[in-house]
Prior knowledge:
With 106 residues, this protein is of the alpha+beta class. It has a domain at 40-57 and 77-94. The protein is built from 3 helices and 4 strands. It has a 4-stranded antiparallel sheet, covered by helices on one side.
Amino acid sequence: xxxxxxxxxxxxxxxxxxxxxxxxxxxxxxxxxxxxxxxxxxxxxxxxxxxxxxxxxxxxxxxxxxxxxxxxxxxxxxxxxxxxxxxxxxxxxxxxxxxxxxxxxx
Length: 106
């Protein structure tokens, strides 16, 4: 398999090299980072309307920002992960959020 030369392609290459099974649906974790924390209730509600299993994760260290974690099941492809990241970023952009991180447990 070949993947684009960017950070998402790098993750997919590492998965491929570790014999990840791309032929089955998998739970994929996505993270939305924010430029402020904590989120207001209305901001979290906006996220929950699209990603009902989203949860706010508070920072472990004082002075750090928390993030929102949500999970989507699907076939792990470049188009899938970048599409979800773009969708989540579009949703969260107006409240200072950006989704650029994802991962799978295997």
